[in-house]
Amino acid sequence: MNLQVNKLGLKYGKTVIFNNLSFELNEGEILGFKGHNGSGKSSLCLCLTGLFEEEFARDNIRGEILYDGVNLNDMTIADRCNAFGLIFQNPDNQLFSPLVIEELAFAPENLNVPRDEIEKRVDDALKTCKIEHLKHAKTNALSGGEKQLVAIASVLTMRPKVLIADEITSRIDKEKIDDIRQILLDFAKNGGSVIMISHNEHDLKIADRIITLERGKNYDY
Ligand SMILES: Nc1ncnc2c1ncn2[C@@H]1O[C@H](COP(=O)(O)OP(=O)(O)O)[C@@H](O)[C@H]1O
Ligand SMILES: [Mg+2]
Known about the structure:
The protein has 221 residues and is of the alpha/beta class. The chain has one domain: Rossmann fold. Helix content is 34%, strand content 26%. The protein is built from seven helices and ten strands. The strands form two sheets. It has a five-stranded mixed sheet. Strands 6-7-8-3-9 form a five-stranded parallel sheet, with helices on both faces. The structure holds adenosine-5'-diphosphate and magnesium ion.
């Protein structure tokens, strides 16, 4: 896997969020992004996963994102789902199934993964996130930290090549943060790549490189 981002620019109307941002990510790497609130970290995640509406993107996004040499715009939605797994900053924006098991099976079902493979993926993801006991729980009865772990597991069942984690430790108890860091480390060690967003320096210690986002910055140097 190789991800190449060339001179990426994003604005909302007249407000430039970032401009000429370039970076590369290869298999097994963890790339960290830090930056203050409003510096554009979550917006960058949306750019990387192609989640902006086409019309908005045409007017407001510049530069190119190449996944294994293919422009993101030329990838099908299914290809993008297989490539990128985005874990949202707020799990309430991600979880919508009544039961944890349904939540975890939802994405692979939509990608037409065979039933026995789905069951294996669900069990693997529950184990990786140490939440086997929540398999049959109701999603809306979970604590904030448990929701975040279910959100991580639900992305892992898609088996993405690039895991994008947008401030996923903010709702997690201190004692459990090491577990989250270990999930990301293991993901990279097993041949995946990670983009990790955090404003916590300690979390970013596992990153191979760190890029600081500053609102409105032009990275053309
Ligand atoms: N859909 C949108 N329309 C207009 N402005 C937005 C939109 N989404 C985010 N912004 C603004 O863009 C800036 C960057 O937001 P965001 O990417 O969420 O930053 P971060 O994740 O670093 O806190 C903020 O000032 C935010 O208010
Ligand atoms: Mg954010």
